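Exercise 3.2. Students should predict the tertiary structure of the chain below and write it as structure tokens, then compare their answer with the key that follows.

Predict this chain's 3D structure.
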Amino acid sequence: MSASPDASPERLLIGGEWTAPDRGHYEVIDPATEEVVGLAAEASREQVYAAARAAREAFGPWSRTAPETRARVLDRAAAILARNLDPYARLARAETGATAGTARVMQVGVAIARLKRYARGALEPVETPLPPQINEAGPFGKAAVLGALAARRPVGVVTCITSYNNPWANPAGKIAPALAMGNTVVIKPAPQDPLSVHRLAEALQEALDEAGAPPGVVNLVTGRDPSVGEAAVDAPDVDMVSFTGSTAVGQRIAEVCGRGMKRQLMELGGKGAALVFDDADLDAAVAGIGTTYSFYSGQICTAPTRVLAQRGIHDRLVERLAGYAARLKIGDPGERDTVVGPLISAAHRDRVESYVELGRKEGAHLITGGDRPSLPRGFYVAPALFTDCTPAMRVVREEIFGPVVVVLPFDDEEGAVALANDTDYGLLDYVWSGDVARAFRVAGRLRTGGVGVNTVGRNMEAPFGGFKRSGVGRDVGSYALHAYSETQAVVWPG
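Answer key:
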């Protein structure tokens, strides 16, 4: 896909109006063809501040709308996405390099599901009754029985800064629960693939207009200059920042939020460990770990990129992982049998390749992959597998965010847990074992926000977030509704 209707210059959404950007446009590039997909808007700092002001003005009336109204808006936006599923999936594939199936099901499809989920979420109870308390007479008055409840209230204006690896599901997972709780939003997409987020914002604005919502409930600002994201964080009218991205950027955002006492929801980097015991189903383990190679070409923070293999199955597991990687078709993500598409940009391809070279220099053994496939264009790297690794190597310790897996051996359960926890990250780990009791015992000792036992599947009502440098807070399911709300205590005499 190259320049089609999506090549027309995009605008910003500020206060319910589609607005020309102060700083012109920049090209969005298809990572598979290196052709122009569209022209994204470059906002000025002043326009970002204006978007935050518009969200502040809309917050009062929107936060007082009936939950049923908010539910209708989200359901209507989901219906608009479903109606345009095919062109939206093509756009997602073009600007992200995701395979056709991934773009359709895991990007646009998941965005639709999340909008519907939080349409229901808007109707969930926000008040929790608490047991009455008997107070003796004292400085605060006569003896009394006091009733109380804990009520969740909207935070206010939420800046949603989204990741490039899924420009549909990731923003929908932020915007939908925020709106369901009565917040207003300023959306700042990743600069690499903002066009999909434009389509999502259009659907939301259409639904808001139909519902007679105040202007400014949803605002969209885009740009590749760092000042755009900085303004979306430090704008005085912003009460909360929800960010998905690298730990380094998350730390800088947290510093700004700390100065302003702004709420944060951070989903940051990961270096997930896959603990594979001698009694594991190796076919299942290889298929699960293989998602690192194929799903978004390893550009996913939940990928099991550190494989910890018990010595009894180490060599067999390495052999099977290498064979799995070698069988994967790399190429045009539009072709039905393609499994591994390109990385998001030339710069990121260079970064992944630099880690492959670093692994060699550190003494790791490259079993397969790590090179550029013989394709005429596109930002591709063949899935790579390293063995003979040590815990101190940078390829073991640092998030590469590409199709690169490292393997380390362990002797027993204690050694496996120690290796798994020897990391700055703690987002999602995995345990493969035929002994389910052991698998759950090990899971309880892992310092990570989630553990998959004999699966890489996700339960989309389970809380999601990280320990350590992998993030702050939890979202997904009803946990997201809590994340985008403040808790207020209300007390009265009985």
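Discussion points: The longest helix spans residues 100-121. The longest strand covers residues 144-154.
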